[in-house]
């Protein structure tokens, strides 16, 4: 179970908080893993207060959402699965997309904003540096994975950012099974990685148009031309 560093002011009552939240969430039908996640988040709230303190439902919700968005929304696959499970319990529609997102431009931002409007939560899966190099060539990526993920996570439209090492996110998508899988460009839905798994689970697959004139490749070419000029 991953933990997050917290500013600790007083540990009084933290153990009781863990036990109480653990018992309550288990009684509500959550799994042990989910219960530990909520209990850990609640204890993080309590140790940030002086004296024996309680955690309110709003504080717990904010802590859980904040934990899901640690590092501007950047998380591991395991953390993402927990966040998605919690979102589904709240009745939220989960949208997922993927890409390299090497040099973020207006076309990317517009596309992600439109994707986010289609649901309640947006997951962006990002190609690792090795995956990007295999896909785009030895000169890419321009920006390393960690930086690409932080920039994406800072966007208001994006809830969660996760990386994948493979050439396609098919395995990752099959593990998450979003309610809606979105891809930009001129793909046919059946050509999109993970589409078969999403359809088999009762989900939807949708292709959105990219904004004309916006391209990472074009940006790189312009920079190279300006250097020569």
From TrEMBL:
UniProt KW keywords: ATP-binding, Carbohydrate metabolism, Kinase, Multifunctional enzyme, Nucleotide-binding, Nucleotidyltransferase, Transferase
Start and end residues of each Cytidyltransferase-like domain: 96-221
Domain of life: Bacteria
Gene Ontology BP annotations: carbohydrate metabolic process
Span of domain Carbohydrate kinase PfkB: 3-57
Catalytic reactions of this protein: D-glycero-beta-D-manno-heptose 1-phosphate + ATP + H(+) = ADP-D-glycero-beta-D-manno-heptose + diphosphate
Broad EC category: transferase
GO MF annotation list: ATP binding; heptose-1-phosphate adenylyltransferase activity; kinase activity; phosphotransferase activity, alcohol group as acceptor
InterPro entries noted in UniProt: Archaeal_FAD_synthase, Cyt_trans-like, PfkB_dom, RfaE_dom_II, Ribokinase-like, Rossmann-like_a/b/a_fold
EC numbers on record: 2.7.7.70
This protein's name: D-glycero-beta-D-manno-heptose 1-phosphate adenylyltransferase
């Amino acid at each position: 179970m991953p933990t997050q560093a917290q500013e600790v002011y007083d540990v009084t009552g933290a153990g009781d908080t863990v036990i109480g939240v653990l018992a309550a969430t288990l009684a509500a039908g959550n799994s042990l893993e989910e219960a530990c996640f909520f209990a850990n988040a609640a204890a993080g709230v309590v140790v940030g207060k002086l004296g024996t303190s309680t955690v309110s439902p709003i504080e717990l919700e904010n802590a859980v959402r904040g934990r899901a968005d640690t590092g501007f929304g950047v998380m591991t696959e395991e953390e993402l699965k927990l966040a998605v499970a919690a979102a589904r319990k709240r009745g939220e529609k989960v949208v997922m997309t993927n890409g390299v997102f090497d040099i973020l431009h207006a076309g990317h931002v517009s596309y992600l904003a439109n994707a986010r409007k289609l649901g309640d939560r947006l997951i962006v899966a990002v190609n690792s540096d090795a995956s990007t190099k295999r896909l785009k060539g030895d000169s890419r990526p321009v920006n390393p994975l960690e930086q690409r993920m932080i920039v994406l996570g800072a966007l208001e439209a994006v809830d969660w950012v996760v990386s994948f090492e493979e050439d396609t996110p098919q395995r990752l998508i099959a593990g998450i099974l979003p309610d809606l899988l979105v891809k930009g460009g001129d793909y046919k839905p059946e050509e999109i990685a993970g589409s078969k798994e999403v359809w088999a689970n009762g989900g939807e697959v949708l292709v959105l148009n990219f904004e004309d004139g916006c391209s990472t490749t074009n940006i790189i070419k312009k920079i190279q031309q300006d250097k020569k000029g």
